[in-house]
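Could you join me in thinking about how sequence relates to backbone shape in a protein? We need material for that, and I hope you will provide a protein of your own picking. Once you have written the record down, we can walk along the chain together:

…
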Amino acid sequence: MATFDVIPDILEVTLRDGSYLIDFQFTAEDTATIAAALESIGFRWIEVGHGLGLNASQAGKGLAAATDEEYMEAAAQALKHAKWGMFFIPGIGREEDIRLAARYGMSFLRIGTNVTEATQAEPYIALAKELGLIVSYNAMKSYAVSPAEFGNVVLQVNKWGADIACLVDSAGSMDPDSVAAYLRAAKAESPSPLGYHGHDNLSLAMANTLRAIEEGAVLVDSSLQGMGRSAGNTVTEVLVAILQRRGALAHIDLKAAMDVGQGLIQPLLGKRGIDPMAVTGGLAKFHSSFTGKVQGYARKHDIDVRDLIVRLCQEDQVSAPDELLERLSHELAALKMPRVLSIPAFRVETGKDKTSAEALDILLKELRARAVKAGKFSALNVVTAEKTLADFLVSGNIHSTQSHVVGSLSLSSREHLTTVLLAVEGRVDVVLLDVDRKPFGPTNAAETAGAILKKTALLTYLDSRVWVEAVEDQVVRLLHEVLNDSEIVIAGDHPRSCFLALRFAERGARVTVLRDPGRPPAVTPIDGMRTLSLEGEELKLSYMKGDAGCAFDALSKANAVVVWPDGEPWFNQRFAERLSSKIYVLDAGIGTILPDGIAEAQRRGCLLLRVNIWPALTGTLSAAHDSLMKTSEALGWEVLDGVPVVAGGAMGQSGDVIVDSVHHPTRVIGVCDGHGGVRFRFGDEDTERVRRVQAEINRRLVAPQFAGTSAS
């Protein structure tokens, strides 16, 4: 039988039970990083892997971000001292999964069955013991039997060789007295060490865990921030704080546990989670009204505010005198106590070169993992390349916005597009497809994508327009939004340069476009562009040969220079010598400034930049996706409680009520005037119709399961 060196001890289940909350999207890298952090904090038992255990992904129980073997490799690489293990459910897991885990040096296996089906565990307990693993039997849904029957189950699994039997409150339905009854019954029947795993559905997980410890449980489960299935688990940070106050688990670094919980786990929980300051306050008996004052002293002396709170409350739990805070701050600063836990970086991957298909598969997995953990949409940008590619090219860059996690790839043929779309279908929320007409690239790209994508939303855009917007936005931000009478030179007459020049000029800038000095004279495109503007002839636009004297004069006066030639690069040292220091020089075409031009511009103190297309691209994505959702969710005509309503721009008849969404309304906006306008002042008849609609909306908001049914 296994021995437990520390009693009671914690089995930290964030990386296993916590994975339910993010659709099993802890990656191998997440696992290595968080597991290493948990070990550094002092935890001796760490569970990893899919929430439903070994082979769950392959068995169709939810596709995890990594394979079982990748989780094993990550844990084995990261952990040097702590015991690590995985979950196993007979009928989902297989014997070969246990053997594989043993080869990776796994310490323990937790075999779970419904308490009424314990006999299913017997052969797997025997195999795990044969392989040298510590075995826990987890009696899932323990409440489905009486305490006496639970005791008999514990006796049986102990005879089969299980090292510990765990009472599992799968539904979070138990209270402390029932936990005590089950554990007492088990102790009366068997010498087996006992554990406890609870959930917080009735806000009793902590109370139940503490009662389990009082009743002799040697190993109890908890997770950082309480991250776990359903209502979550016992909160690790709080449990450690309580047990340390009782004199147990002194080897665990509570502050580090709070830091890791707040830094690595809380961002996955939205607005949920545990505030480390709240835990510290409860531990130290600190009144939160003094928080701002104490934080000020901590910042002033560069110390951890939690250390100061604890020391303060050791001397004064009623007030927070300035002289006391000053003295304690000096004392703590002199101790030079470490403030941040150091966690090694991990990247679990093979060293072999990847094919385009393999790189795409890796990207799609990472997009989904990041998006699910952040509560965002996953999106893949598919852009047509400027030249022929032998295969599609996957970018290593992933960009995150407030609403989307976005990856990107380039391609140049319909065959590439079809291959990519078939691989992507159903694995990202959105495909953002470039439908620019370029010399290279698939024709009828939108039609091809529309025929393939059924589960993934399709959005289209014009890459050339987004590129112009990206350059404009970047220059505008760099010049702090004020372009009136600023001098901007566009070195190059790329077709997009003319659009860019017009946009800068409409903002009030003096814009000079330089054409390639090696090309023959051309008809100026500026005059044609003026006709597209409401300001026309008022725009300050010039067009000239790049090596003309007035061109060099314009370069010397420029506040910003955008290099964007139509063809081979020509902006070299000769042109860079005319630039003033500290001006911005933007390589809009990527690779369009010659090396000697770059060197000279840097020597002169210019600030060189590549165009950053991501803000404009993701802005286009967000706007298009929002428009799609508004069209599908908001737009339309409906009847609520007998009253016609419209939403999303749909025009109604006079008296129809306008709401914010036809499918999921939350408020009334106004009443149609019958001519496409809105009435915000209502007569008696309008008022009654609005009242009925708002009452129906309120009914749906508090009882969404009845939305679409008539009020009784």
Summary: Residues 374-444 form one domain. The chain has five domains: 9-268, 275-337, 374-444, 466-615, 635-706. The mean pLDDT is 92. The longest strand covers residues 377-384.
